[in-house]
Amino acid sequence: MQAVRIGVEGVELWGRCGVTEEERAVGQRLVVEVLLEPVETAGLQTDDLAGTVDYGAVVAVIREAVEGREYRLLERLADEIAGRLTTELSVREVSVRVRKPAPPVGSPIGAAWVEVVRRP
Q: How confident is the chain (120 residues) per 10-residue block, as mean pLDDT?
């Protein structure tokens, strides 16, 4: 048996995620990356989108979660995305990483990130 993994990386959206009210009110750029293993892999042979996961559907789920409400923790946002993907798409496993570039932590850092792995 072979495994197929599909990745969608660098989905940049404006979201409201932070512990402080100010951080949530202002919002910031968030970067989401997803790696998933689809249940349906017939697309390997058929070359038909119906036999795999549509990247556009993945991005739509991410956008809805990020832009649809505010979050205090990256952990919660990543888990929300993972939950929606496992509910709305036919997958064996999904890994969701959410990065917050240059978070306000008192020292310059490139990014903070959280990764959630879910198996339905």
A: 90 95 92 96 89 95 97 98 96 97 89 95
